[in-house]
Each structure stands twice: as structure tokens, then as C-alpha cells.
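Why do we care about 3D structure at all? Because function follows from shape, and shape follows, mostly, from sequence. That is the central idea of this module. The next example makes it concrete: a single protein chain, its amino acid sequence, and then its structure expressed as C-alpha cells.
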Amino acid sequence: MKYTLLVITLLITQYTFAQTYTISGRIIEKSDTSGLIGVGIIATSLTDTSQKSGTATDDAGNFTLTNLKPGNYTISTSYIGYNQLSRTTNVTGDINLGNIVLEASPTTLNNVTVQGTQTRVQQLGDTTQFNASAYKTNPDANVEDLVTKMPGVTSENGALKVNGEDVKRVMVDGKMFFGDDASTAVKNLPAEVVDKVQVFDRMSDQSQFTGFDDGQGEKTINIVTKPGKNNGQFGKVYAGYGTDDRYIAGGNINFFNGARRISVIGLSNNINQQNFSTDDLLGVTGSNSGQNRGGGMPGGGGAGGGGNRGGGGRGYGGGGSAGNFLVGQQGGITKTNAIGLNYSDDWGKKIKATGSYFFNQTDNENNTTLSRRYSSGGDSAITYKETSQSIAKNINHRANLRLEYNIDSSNSIIYSPSVSIQNNEANKILTAQNLIGNGTTLLSSTNSRSASNNFGYNFNNSLLYRHKFKKQGRTISLNLAGGINNRDGNSSLYSFNDYEDSDSLVDQRSNNYTHGYNMSGNITYTEPLSKLSQLMVNYNPSFTSGNTDRETFNIDSNSSAYTGLDTLLSNKYKNTYTTHNGGLSYNLIDKAKKMNLMLSVNGQYATLEGDQEFPRAFQLEKNFTSILPRAMFNYRFSKTENIRIFYRTSNNAPSISQLQDVIDNSNPLLLKTGNPDLKQDYQNTFMVRYGNTNTKTSRSFFAFAFANFTNNYIGNATIIPGQDTTVENGVLINRGGQLTKPVNLDGYVNARTFLTYGLPINPIKSNLNLNAGFSYGHTPAMINNIVNYSNTYNVNGGFTLGSNISPNVDFAVSYSGNYNIARNTVQTELDNKYYSQITSLKFNWIFLKGFVFNTNINHNLYTGLTSDFSQSFLLWNASFGYKFLKNRALEAKVVAYDILNQNSSISQTSTDTYIEDSQTDVLKRYFMLQLTYTLRSFKQ
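And the structure:
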């Protein structure tokens, strides 16, 4: 018996000492109680100092220490610019320390030099953190210059990407900076204030609270400022004037005082510097905009194999660079006047406020030439050639606000309103031809003049209430959202159309009005099933309504008044889309915090209703039932290696413009119409992310894979008749013209991968970033009632070699190449392959105590273009200046743009119905004298 008791005692003792526990908590800043990101936490056993567990806080300041045996531990923190904290705790089970307050250190370091290999990149859970001091930049560099030296970070046509994904937001010290305009944020902060750069997927506020990922995360960059650089005033102002009356003026100024931060930026120039994104509510701006350049309805047929644009017209030397409607830089030559304001502060201990306002005014002139090849469905393809000259004036206001009210430790409210206003005036002259017989025989042509004046606004707001119960893991939250939108405009069209057997003259005026509103709610309740698992119940209703009224009047030849209502081009339509979505979700996190599994299934019942009053009355109602599963799996192999796998399903309803059964004849050769019989689509999306960093060797590897499979895809159906043909509703399509409308088709696939590998090249004190990618598109479309599948393949790769020598010598050599193949199942005459590459060199040299030389060389090469377009060109910019006054604050420099006068802007596109080459206006050679004054005044 005593031996039995001894064995039982030994087993219990062994089991007890085999148990491991966790310590969790949240690190907050004393002044504003905000979570601190990237704080180092270490637990050290008092009885055996070799027993340690370490981690770093996530983007909300939360941490979890794992694999702790029972006993007494010292918990210590480490964070640059803050006092160290140390406390002792006895571990007998899982412990939550709650909020741990860190206070900023008043100590400053002067004239201290630290030598050795710096850690370039770390993996902190789902956050990738880069050490800014390990990437040397010149003193005038901005954040964009800094981050594009980091592995996986690129800037493409003004848009910032990480591992091939668009960056949607930029935060500074965990707070929003210029709302959802990532481009503005990175171009207007100096690199010298940055301590850390953190990249992560920011979940929605409700998802962060519940801990259940809804798949709506946004790729986000958080800028952690250096100690001593987050209190003071800094910025720059600049002005320049040059040949051909080229000019630029602008600046940015930042007032940082603890939690209160105010930033003001401004810009005025005629050298194509558009450092602000534009909220394009009307769909009239952007590099490919126009009053009907082509045949695709919005949302249909957008599979691109390529779409690469080289050169561009952006000016050089701008003083250091001053919903998803946001669009980037427009093509052509643009005059820009813009101002932006960002504000963030803590109103007492319970309220945090952030907000921003933007004003943009652009005057754009653009001459475009394009060549497009369609399949006719017969023996030969149709070549469509177009030249156009357009002038557009655009005014845009947008503002957003975020108020976070922490009522107490259990209750909080977040209110987020936003508003956008846009006015656009445009005039366009267009000449177009359709040709057959290898582009030698004229089939039809049009010469037209058009004008439009449009006004629109959006107002959206959301209110989120969150409540934590006393039982850990039990929560309830309610999110209410709503918005209204309005579009009001008029247009005119005068065109002469010449067909094979006839011709026609169109002279008409149109009035267009669209109004809509939406409401939605999402209530969630979470309940802990155990210490490791949680259940969530949610219900999400939504309602969207849209009204559109389009009237088109033809000229009366007798009275010269526009009185004849054209019933084919007029329409009055209303639609509503109602959804009821609800379901269950299960979340499991293992004890060591290495694995996170989330499973979810929702049911959705949707009703799509349409009511057309004119030109013919009809009503429709469609009901849809969907099962929408979702799954997410995170696994952390070690502190430096993890993988994330995500799967979700979703529905998207057709837009009111796609449902409108009315002809758009703004390009008489390329008619468009809507389709009231459209159904909602059903999408399956897969995503995998893998990251591995080695802090000892400063090497990193990241991989990303994405695939989307869509049933009831809203694609294009195009009719290209061999003779004059009248189709439904009495629409006449002349031979040499075409009509495109959206239809539901199955079989759409969009997949892509991206790999990046970064490593230091110590012999030349540089960092090398390698990247490669592959994308595949399988896009269905109909040509003359025959379904064609367009298969596009893209292989891309490149590298960036960035210097890490010193701030006085800063260079970057990069290469990016794309090889594209298009293959079609039916329209084999559209099969194509083409290649493009961009090789660039950036070099900045500060010498002789104040002289600055800067040069930027880009070589663009294209193969597979039509003979009408340039195949290769070299864009070479350079500047030479001198810095003087105290702290070298004032710089005078001479700028030379496009020294060789070769600049060009070329675009290659392959879609489901055509392949296209296009070329737009760009800036050519000019010279400019420019002054830049840099302000730096930091509090110690």
C-alpha cells in the first residue's frame, strides 16, 4: 500500500511540474492610455534564470508569455524612450495582469554611437517590424523612400504595396494619419523621425474586440516615431519656377505635442505632382478615365494580364515630395492645387479623436492614342483605333472623423462619420475607327464632341458600441452604419457616324440623376467555452436602395431646341437589395498561443427588387439563399516563423448602373447598356501568408498566395454584328459597331502569388531585396452569344539593391520585369504575349559640407506592342544644389527633368474581350530653379 501511495505521489509531482501556464496583459502609455506596439516583455524565473519566456506586444499593446512552469518570476519590459518596469509575480495558473502603465523617459542620449549589426526585421506574431535605423536614407528622404528599401515593400504608380497587397492605411504611433490616404501619409512624413515600421492586417474595430477575424482586414503600416522626435515642429516648404512656365510650390508642417498632433500639407504645381489621392465618386478621373473609352461595363470583364504603364508624366524635384473610390495619379498633364489637414488628440482620459480633411483641385489635359483588337466571332478580328483630346476640371472635398469614448473599463463607443463631395467638368473630342483585314479596310468611324458637368456626394457614418461582461471572454457589441449618396449631372454629345452602308448625325443633351441610401447593423455576442475556446453568435441585416433617372433629348431641326425625348436612351429605375445574414463562429487558441483556429458558418437570405417606370414599366423580384462558410488558421512555428491560412465566401449584388436597361451612346461605335436580369455572384476566396525572419543574419522571407473563384460572375456579353442588326428593345447596331452589356457567367478564376527575400550585402554595406510572382486569370465573356474563356498568365520578378552606407551616400538600383501571355478558348485571334521591364537607378550624394547631387534614371522596355507605339525609352532626371544657413536648413538647387527628352507613357492591357495598347501625354524636358526650407525644432 505504501508503495502504491509513493508511486501516486511521484506521478502527481511529475504531473504538477509538467504543467505550464501563461501570463497575459496589455502595455499602455501613461499620458493617453493607448496601447504600445512592439514592447519587449521577458519573464525570468527567480530560482533558475535560464528559464525565460519572451515576447512583444501586438498592435493593440497586448501580450502573452507562454510555457511558464509554476514558480516566482520577474516580469520586465524594454522599450526605447520609456522607463523600464520590473515586477515579481507567483505563477500557479494562467494570469492576466491587466493594464501595465509605461511612462516616457525624460533621459536623453547625446553623442552616443553604437556600432554593430542592427536587427533589420522581426516577426512579432502577425506583425512584421522593421528597424528604420538599419536602412540608411538621405536627410531629405520621406517615409516612402525609407519603406521601399524594406523587403516586400514597393511603390507602383504611386500606390504603396506590401508583398503584392495594397496598403490601405498608415498610422503614426498607433493613431490614424490622414485617414485612408496612404499615399499622402508616406509622402509627407520625413524618414528621420521614424524608429520602427510595423506592417500588419488591421481588423475592423468590431473584429478586434470580439477576436473573430471577419476577413475584412486592411493592410496597414504603423510608423513608430523616435524618442525625442514626437514632440516639436518639423516640416518643409518649397517653391520653384522653370522653363515652359513650369512651377511648383508647397510644403508640410507637423506640430507634435504629446497626444496632440496637427499636420498641414499643401501643394500647387503644373508638373504632375499629385501627392493626394482623389475620391472619385463619379467615376470620371484616373489614368484611364474618359466618357466611354471602351466596351466594358463597370464590374464586368476586368481581367488584366499586364496593364503595365511606363514612364508617366510626373514632374521631378518637388521639395522632397510633399472607400475605395480613391484613385491615383491621372494621365496627361495636370495642374494641381491641394491642401490637407490631419488632427489627433486625447480629450481627457476617456476620449480619443482623430480626423482629416482634404481639398483637391485639378485641371487635366490629356491626348490619348490607343489601338484595340476585338474578336468579331468570325474569321478575322476587328481593330479599333482611337485618338482623343480631353480637358477636365475636378474639385474634391473629403473629410473623416473618428471619436473613441471609453466610458469605463467595460464599455466603449466608436463613432466614425465621413463625407466626400466632388464636382467635375469635362470636354472631349474623339475620333475613332473600326477596321478589318489586318487593320487595312475601314468598317466604320465616328467623330464626336462631348461635354459633361457632374456633381456628387457621399455621407457615411457608423456607431459601434462594445461591452465586456465580468466573465472574461463574454462580450456583446452592436455596430450601426448608414449612408446616403447622390449624383447629379448633365451632358451633351455631337457626333457624326459613318458606317458601311449609312451614316448618322447625333446631337443630343442628357440629364442624369442617381440617389441612394444604405443601412446596416451587426450585433455579436461571444461566450467562452473554456480558457482556450470561444463561441460567437452574430446577426447582420442590411438594406440598400437606389434610384436613377436619365433623360436624353435629341435636337429638333425646326426649332433648334432639345425637345425630342429619346426613349432608347432614357430610363427611370429603382432597385433595392435586402440581406439577412447570421450564424455561428468558433475560435480556438492553444495554451502556448502557437495555434489559432477559427471556423464560421453563416446563412444569408437576400432579396433583389427592381422597378422600372420608363420607357416600359416592369417589376422584378429575385430571392437568393446562400451558405457562407469562413475559416482561418494561424500557426506560429517559432517567434520568427508563422503561417496564416484564410478562406471566406461572399456575395456581391449588381450595381444600379449594371441593372439599368438604357443605352449609353457616348461612343457611338461602342454602345453599352445594363441588364435588369443580373443575379448576385458567389465568391470563394483563399489566402495564405507565410513569414520567416532571422534576426541574427537579418534575412527575411515572405510568401503570399491568393485565389478567387466566382460563380455568377458579372462579365461582358458583346454583340459585333456582321450586318445591321436590331436587338432587344429596338436597339439598332450598325455593322462596324458593337453593343456590350453585363451578364452572369460561371468559371471566373483570379489567382496570384508573391515571394520576397531580403538579406544584407555586408561587403558593400547594402540591402538586397528579391521578389517574384505569378498570376493567372480565367475570365469568361460572350462574343455574339459564344462563350470564350480568356486565360492570362503573368510571370514577374525583380530586385532592389539599396545602400546602407551613410546618409551622405544613398543609392538604389532596381529592376522589375513582367512577361504576359493571353490565350483564348474560342477567340484565338486575340492570343498574345508581351514583355515589359523597368530598370532604375537612384543616387543621392552630399559632399563638401553642403553640396547635393541627385539623379534618377529609368529605362523602360516593351516588346509585343503595335508599331504605332514606342518600344523603349530612357527617362533621366537630375538636380544639383547647395544647402546653407543654420543647420543647412535652406537648399537652392537646379532641376533637370527628362534630360534626353524621351519620356513616354505606355499601357498594355489584355482583357476578356480585347487586347489594347495605349499612349497618353506626358511631360517633356524642362529645367527649374527651386528653393526648399527645412524646419526642425524638437523638444528635448
